[in-house]
Structure to design on (88 residues):
């Protein structure tokens, strides 16, 4: 369990760092498993809808910036025309 930087409450932690190095350790220490899964879905949507190439350093930098904005509740980019699902 940890205090998640996205949700500001205690939630289950990841089982291990999701990335190697200091960034992975930071995510492991600050981000809940739930927030990580949600980020993975948003990241996939951004990559697909914006036709991003992960071999480009600019793309990796952009995704890293978007990730930390997401984890700290700052506005993130969304694909043009995206509308979140309506919760019932």
């Amino acid at each position: 369990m940890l205090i998640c930087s996205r949700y500001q409450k205690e939630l289950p932690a990841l089982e291990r760092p999701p990335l190697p190095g200091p960034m992975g350790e930071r995510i492991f220490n600050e981000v809940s498993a739930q927030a990580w899964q949600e980020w993975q879905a948003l990241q996939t949507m951004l990559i697909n809808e914006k036709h991003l190439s992960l071999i480009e350093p600019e793309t990796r930098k952009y995704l890293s910036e978007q990730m930390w904005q997401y984890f700290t509740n700052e506005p993130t980019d969304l694909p043009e025309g995206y509308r979140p699902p309506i919760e019932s």
Q: What stands out?
A: The mean pLDDT is 93.
